[in-house]
Amino acid sequence: MTEQRMTNSQNAGPASESAGGPVGKSASKPAPGSLGRSSGPAGRAAGVVLGAATLAMGLISGAFYVFACAVMPGLARSGDRVYIEVMQNINDVIQNPVFFASFFGALLCTAAAAWQLRRTTLRWWVFAALLVYAAAFVLTSGANVPLNDDLAAAGDPARIADPAAVRERFEDAWVAWNAVRAALCTVAFGLLARALVLFGRGRDH
Questions:
Q1: Cα(178)–Cα(115) distance, integer angstroms
Q2: Is 184:132 a contact under the CB 8 Å cutoff?
């Protein structure tokens, strides 16, 4: 009888340990949906993409900000033909890989970060940034770019019959829409910066 009890006790030991093992391990696992700097390759990749999105957004918001607070006010002091010529030149040279890397990169990297973080509460910050920048992107494509095209179609400033009329059709509308997109991009940058700070702390909220 005593031997049988001892045998049963010895058999129960490993079973208890094996039953307790997974419980202890599961207690140390990260909460579902968390994704921080300690989450392995997936977490590091998400951090890199989120950082790239924040950088690109900062660059594009800075570009529009400089137009709003320096470039356009400076050009406003110029004569009509000079104004048209300089804006035509700016609109031509700004179509380069460096500008496009930030203009399109902000959209693509933010979208990629939103997808990678979709199962964390950080998604609200990144999705909000994506929506705000999408509005700025559409605004640029639907308002500023057509105005640029119309200004280019006016031709050589030296040969325009009424440069004042060409400038009038362009200036006020372009400046107003640029201010709006600069504000939108700045908001999107702030949202991404907040998400990046929380991510760096290893928090998903």
A1: 29
A2: yes
Q: What is the Cα gyration radius of the chain?
A: 28
Summarised one tens digit per residue, pLDDT across range 113-148 is: 999 999 999 999 999 999 999 999 999 999 999 999
Distinct helix (H) and strand (E) counts, the chain: 8, 0
Q: What share of the chain is helix, strand, coil (3-state, %, to 5)?
A: 80, 0, 20
Interatomic CA distance for residues 133 and 151, integer angstroms: 25
Which SS3 state, helix, strand or coil, does residue 150 take?
helix
Contacts of 33 (CB under 8 A, 6+ apart): 119, 120, 121, 204
| Residue 78, SS3 per DSSP | coil
- Decide if 60 contacts 110 (C-beta within 8 A): no
Q: How far apart, in whole angstroms, are the C-alpha atoms of residue 156 and residue 154?
A: 7
CA distance 42 to 50: 12
- Give the pTM: 0.79
Single out the residue of 114, 157, 159 nearest to residue 133, CA to CA: 114
> CA–CA separation, 101 vs 124, rounded Å?
25
